[in-house]
Amino acid sequence: MNKTIQEDNLHVLYDEDTLAGCVKTLAGKISEAGYENLLVISVLKGSFIFAADLIRALHYAGLAPEVEFISLSSYGAGTTSSGTVRVVRDIESDVAGRDVLLIDDILESGRTISFARDLMLKRGARRADIAVLLDKAEKRVVPLEADFVGFSCPDLFVVGYGMDKAHAYRQLPFVGYLDS
Ligand code: IMP
Ligand code: MG
Fold it and tell me: Is the CB of 46 inside a 6 Å radius of any atom of ligand 1?
């Protein structure tokens, strides 16, 4: 038994089956959105597991996207956003004239993903849409909605399925929350 799963203050919010169902539903919706020559951009680090699952589900839904990664940072090692977003590692593809779908783990203040979308539009993307696993709508600072949302998430600090607290818990196969 993994010792992290035995931690008293870690609780399951969305289990593996729930996540798998959600990813399949999202892929179906994305496949019906009329994208051409789609470039999917996974926003690292938090989205890496969600993106890996969603990209495979997109294949089964009939799409053949190209895949890129951008590493953005708005958090330090703590649990509150610093408010400034910076590019830690950029994509390598030219997005001019392309349909882009940004994949992120959580939409909270909106700062991270609005920065990424503005960057892609400034570079000439034809369309820069957003897919997120979790939406914490109450915490929004920048007015922005995602085009595809897995779950509306309660205002809890969540971990697992790629998401971290101070670099820990990313490996968990479920989304959990910490109550301390
Ligand atoms: P935003 O810029 O405030 O929308 O923050 C979004 C980013 O903050 C996400 O991509 C996550 O990486 C991180 N984040 C926000 N809430 C949580 C959380 O509850 N757990 C882990 N990371 C989070
Ligand atoms: Mg993130």
Answer: yes
Domain boundaries, the chain: 23-154
Rounded (10°) angle between helices 48-60 and 16-31:
50
Q: Is the pLDDT of residue 77 over 80?
A: no
Atom of ligand 1 nearest to the CA of 177: 19
Helix, strand, coil percentages for the chain (3-state, nearest 5): 25, 35, 40
**135 in ligand 1 pocket by Cβ < 6 Å?**
no
pTM: 0.93
For the domain spanning 23-154, the CATH number is: 3.40.50.2020
| Closest ligand relative to 133 C-alpha | 1
Distances (CA, A) of 174 to 68, 99, 125: 24, 30, 33
126, pLDDT greater than 60: yes
Sign for the pseudo-dihedral over CA of 39, 30, 132, 53:
negative
Predicted confidence (pLDDT) per residue in 39-67, tens digit = 999 999 999 999 999 999 999 999 999 99
